[in-house]
Structure formats: C-alpha cells, structure tokens
Amino acid sequence: MGNNISQHIAFLGCGSMNGAILTGLLAAGVPSGQVTATVRDPEKAANLAKRHGVQVLSSTEETEANRQAAGGADVVLLGVKPVGILDLARQISPALKPGTVVISVAAAISIDMLEAALPQGQPVIRSMPNTPSSLGRGVLSISAGTHATAELMEQARTILSAAGTVVEIPEDQVDALSAVSGSGPAYAFYLAEAMAAAGVKLGLEEDLAKLLATQTVAGAGYMLAEEGADATALRKAVTSPNGTTERAIATFDEQGLPDIIAAGAQAAAERAGAITKELDGR
Ligand SMILES: NC(=O)C1=CN([C@@H]2O[C@H](COP(=O)(O)OP(=O)(O)OC[C@H]3O[C@@H](n4cnc5c(N)ncnc54)[C@H](O)[C@@H]3O)[C@@H](O)[C@H]2O)C=CC1
Ligand SMILES: O=C(O)[C@@H]1CCC=N1
C-alpha cells in the first residue's frame, strides 16, 4: 500500500506521535529512502536511524537540520509540542519549496496560526492523529488550510491512510475529535490500569492482574477492529442476563461512569481551547 506513495516525507520532531506515524508508514511499505526525520538529541537520532533505516538529522543548531529536511521534502509533518510548532514553522520557512505541504499534528494550533508563520500561499493541513498509527491502526483527521487543494488533501489522505483510518473534518471539530481519538488511547490504557488495580484489590497477584487486564483490553480492541464491529453488540454478548457482567455494568452506570468519561473528554477539549488562546499571537 505504501508503495503507491512517491512523495518525500520529512518528520520534523520525531517523538511519540510523529514517531508512530513514521513507524506506521514504513511498516505499510513506504520506502525508507523517501523518509527523513529530525530530532534534537544526536544519540536519539542515531538510534532512530538504526531502528528504521531512514535518514535522521540532528543538530545542536536545529535550524539547519530542520531546514535541510524540510527543503528536500514534498510533505513536511510538524511533530513538536504545541509551544514549539510556530517557531519551527518560522525556522523552516526560508527552505520550503512553494508546493510543499505542511501538515501539523499539534493540538490547539490553528490553521490561521500556522499559515501566519509560514510563507504566503504555503499549503497547510491540520491533522489530529493518535499513537496506534504505529500499527497502521490510527485514526487521523485532516482539515484543509486555505491553499490545500482537493488534490493535496487526497495526497495527504493517501499518505496518512498508511497509518490508519483518515477522516476529513472541519477545523472547528478538531478539539472534539482530539478529546475522543487523539487522547483516547490514553483512556483505554487508563482502563487497563484501573482493571489491574481492581484485580489486586480482589486478591490477585499484581503481575497476574496486569497480565489479565492488558490482554483483555488488547483482545477487546482486536474484536472492535474487525469489520462491522459494534461496541454495544460486543458488550451485550458478554453480558448474561442476571449474570456477573450485568452487575458490573449496572454499578458503572449507577456510579456515573459515562458522565465521568464525558467530563474528561470535555476537559480535554476545553484545555485545547485554552492552549490555543495561550499560544495565539506568539
Ligand atoms: N502523543 C500523542 O498521542 C499525540 C500528540 N499529538 C501532538 O503531537 C505533537 C508532539 O507530541 P509528542 O509526540 O507527544 O511529543 P514528544 O515530546 O514525544 O515528541 C516531540 C519531539 O520533538 C523533538 N523536538 C522538539 N523541538 C524540536 C526541534 N526544534 N527540532 C527537532 N526536533 C524537535 C523533541 O526532542 C521530541 O523528541 C504535539 O504537538 C501534540 O499535541 C497529537 C496527537 C496525539
Ligand atoms: O495530550 C495532548 O495534548 C496530545 C494531544 C492529543 C493527545 N496527546
């Protein structure tokens, strides 16, 4: 699948998120020669290069590494923390080819903010991915900037599809999407942690409880990943009438777990809005 991708892709800042997309793309067959990454730390650069067989540039003077990678790319993925994204965009601006598409995966950084930091007319796409992208199981949103033509959006869709399911959304839905799928893997891992702790409370050895919780959440995830899977139907198939699971779910409902999850997601979305306000105009 990744063999259909002919563009040269630069990952500027290659930590958890950009690293996951890079891993997903290479696993899908994107040739390593079409990929460049940059990181701050030279040791990390050497490790990444060894692990993935891609060119990884590092520099104590990061400006040069980022400019060099961006200048040779058709598509640039900005993957540093929100607070650093606009400085990075300004750093690479002199090196960008006019047609190079700049994709930002940063939470809370709007298309307007990105376009203001980049050369006039530069195609920009805002994306909100998630870390299962490393397994080709991510969810990655795309929202078009002013100069991202339908053709460039299609190109981005093709590239990011190698890392998972791509959905195109209006930019005003990014914070909501992020509160479900961007942060969502952490919620699932948190559930696994809580299930393990519950097992220990019920008298199981900690290692066994962790194994049970981890494999159960992973197994349930595999079932959900099957074509046509429906969470409600799968839950009902575990829940015998008047049985044990029914009692657990009733307790979750009585204690307001759905409301707690909704409140957490709302807090995530509101935090994104607050970060946008903090960083706008910087
Ligand atoms: N971690 C996640 O699950 C998700 C993260 N994001 C977004 O992805 C972005 C990155 O987040 P993470 O990957 O979690 O952070 P991270 O800290 O794991 O990765 C960022 C990497 O960029 C490097 N870096 C920083 N400044 C640099 C520069 N000027 N040049 C080259 N490398 C530089 C850092 O050393 C680090 O390795 C953030 O903007 C975040 O909002 C979006 C969706 C999900
Ligand atoms: O926690 C964060 O801010 C980022 C955005 C979505 C997931 N991680």
How would you describe this structure to a colleague?
Strand 5, helix 5 and strand 6 form a beta-alpha-beta unit. The protein contains twelve helices and eight strands. The protein folds into two domains: 2-175, Rossmann fold (3-Layer(aba) Sandwich); 184-269, ProC C-terminal domain-like (ProC C-terminal domain-like fold), CATH 1.10.3730.10. It has helices at residues 16-27, 42-52, 62-71, 82-92, 111-117, 150-161, 174-182, 184-201, 206-225, 231-238, 244-254, 257-279; strands spanning 9-12, 35-39, 55-58, 75-78, 101-104, 124-128, 138-144, 164-168. The longest helix has 23 residues, at 257-279. With 282 residues, it is of the alpha/beta class. The mean pLDDT is 96. An eight-stranded mixed β-sheet has the order 3-2-1-4-5-6-7-8, with helices on both faces. The protein is globular. Helix 8 (184-201) runs antiparallel to helix 9.
